[in-house]
Amino acid sequence: MSVSFDVVVATDSERGIGKDGRLPWRLAHDLRYFRELTTAVSKAGARNAVIMGRKTWESIPPGHRPLPDRVNVVVTRDPVYALPEQVLRAASFDQALEALQGLAVENCFVIGGGEIYRLALKHPRCRRLFVTEVASRFECDTFFPEYRGDFVLESSSEPKRDNGLQYSFKTYKRKGAF
Predict the structure, then answer these.
(1) Domain of 70: which CATH number?
(2) Confidence (pLDDT) at 47
(3) What is the mean pLDDT of the chain?
(4) Is pTM beyond 0.85 here?
(5) How deeply is 4 buried, as exposed, middle or buried, from its count of CB atoms within 10 A (0-12, 13-18, 19+)?
(6) pLDDT at position 178, please?
(7) 145: DSSP letter
(8) 91's torsion region: left (phi>0), alpha (psi -120 to 50) or beta?
């Protein structure tokens, strides 16, 4: 069976997602939301998977990687890039999805960065986008691809505030799918 996946991202009002390999904001509630979303499973013995590019892997503080209680897959073209033994390596996005075949993975989430997001949004097995939309503009050098032509808003939280920033959790569903 082919692995379907969802995308998790936080963007500013211009779809900015990062600057110099870092998030341009700190929202504690968003980090909790991310952890809960990407770890929650309904079946005993199952885990979720997170697929990320090498730069996203490197942006996670060393003491927090691999992300616990999830199968971590890092996409890198470097066949000798050093990764912990329990982290899966994939040379391409499709190879990352193939690496999860046969594992007890309940949900798969793509968590960045920019290039991986571009590939994920074009992929026919992308079901949903979980987007934290920050209602401010930041100076970013990495952006999330335009998605509103292919995805429709399914749900939105009430606006929240943290660190002086307003944001909402939104879920978008691929048009005409699933």
Answers:
(1) 3.40.430.10
(2) 95
(3) 95
(4) yes
(5) middle
(6) 54
(7) P
(8) alpha
CA distance linking residue 126 with residue 86, whole number of Å: 25
Q: How many CB atoms lie within 10 A of CB 83?
A: 17
Could you give the number of structural domains in the chain?
Answer: 1
Read off the tokens for 100.
């999860």
Structural domain harbouring 124: 5-174
Tell me if 6 sits within 8 A of 107, measured CB to CB.
Answer: yes
- Does the bond joining 66 to the residue before it have cis omega, within 30 degrees of 0? yes
The helix, strand and coil proportions of the chain, stated in percent and rounded to the nearest 5, come to: 20, 35, 45
**Per-residue pLDDT tens digits for 75-102:** 999 999 999 999 999 999 999 999 999 8
How many Cβ atoms from other residues are within 10 Å of residue 15's Cβ?
A: 18
Question: Which tokens is 127 given?
Answer: 């079901």
Q: Cα–Cα distance between 19 and 118 in angstroms, integer?
A: 17
Any idea how long the chain is? 178
Give just the sign of the alpha carbon dihedral 68, 170, 157, 154.
Answer: negative
Going by C-alpha positions, the residue among 114, 132, 133, 94 that lies closest to residue 5 is 94
Euclidean distance between CA atoms 145 and 171, whole angstroms = 16
Q: Is 84 helix (H, G, I), strand (E, B) or coil?
A: coil
Instruction: Write the pLDDT tens digit of every residue in 127-163.
Output: 999 999 999 999 999 999 999 899 999 999 999 999 9
